[in-house]
Amino acid sequence: MSQEITRLLRNWSAGDDEALDPLFDLVYETLREIAVARLRGGAAHTLQPTSLVNEAVLRLMGRNVEWNDRAHFFAVAALKMRAVLVDHARAMASAKRGGDVELLTLSHAEHEGEAIEFDVLALHRSLERLAERDARAARAIEMAYFGGMDRDEIAAVIGVSVPTVDRDLRFAKAWLNRELA
């Protein structure tokens, strides 16, 4: 299936609009599972997984990207999901004048088996600060958390070894836990 997704992505990039429907059929469920995982545990969420996926896909479609492969697509999708979540949290905070904040469960930063919930905007600001300190670690955690990518896929997209991705993820998790505690 990974090769089929890559083939359809390349065809779509080359201007074959008929590749979009079968591509969407293949990636939609994975994107929805990622969205469900990102929104799980955040009782304050008014954004539904389907809405998150649809908005992220609309943002993906508006770009003229030369897709390398499935991993590249999901890496960009991770960025778009993060942007949708941040935009939604900003709109909610603005509407409520700083009232109830949107919470996310950062499953990659678990402490003693219990998931920790974070304010979406605080997580976004912390990721920006992490990127200033270590851009590669920030990209790795973003792909793992927002994109649901495994360490092999992250290594392929970033162009480093799997042990390097493991080190980056450990560093990013520890750094975020400290920042958001």
UniProtKB/TrEMBL annotation:
Pfam hit, one: Sigma70_ECF
Domain RNA polymerase sigma-70 ECF-like HTH: 3-180
Keywords, ordered alphabetically: Sigma factor, Transcription, Transcription regulation
Membrane-spanning parts: none
Domain of life: Bacteria
Keyword Transmembrane helix: no
Record flagged with keyword Membrane: no
Name of the protein: ECF-type sigma factor
Organism: Lysobacter auxotrophicus
